[in-house]
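Notes from the 1:1 (GR / supervisor)

We went over the backlog. Supervisor wanted to see one worked example end to end before approving the batch request, so GR pasted a single chain during the call. The sequence is below; no edits were made to it. Supervisor asked that the structure be written out right there so they could see what the output format looks like.
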Amino acid sequence: MLQTSNGWAGVNPMLRKVAVAAASKPHVEIKQNGEQFYIKTSTTVRTTEINFHIGEEFNEETVDGRKCKSLATWETENKIYCKQTLLSGNGPKTFWSRELKGDELILIFGADDVVCTRIYGRVQ
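Structure output shown during the call:
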């Protein structure tokens, strides 16, 4: 989504309100077994799950629901970078990364030159 002076370009105002409410307190569960990862993100509106192995392509959907092939690699010992390639149609080049820093998970989504950063805290 691109914020303009009039709001969010290309996003229905009702959908925008639902998305903002749903995204305000997501729950993220991450399980790791060696190079195998499972990530589940739950909100009151939607739940997404991905399973992947570092260095192997896997099927995924972009944040806006387009099907893609993804490839996750280690960028550092605590950071995974994932490049997404659309299966059909045109669209921005997208990626995500997840990095653990102490008790924080830093999630970054990118679409061409637009980048969004979200920081999660560990639930005790």
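Supervisor's comment: The chain is about 10% helix and 60% strand.
Batch request approved.
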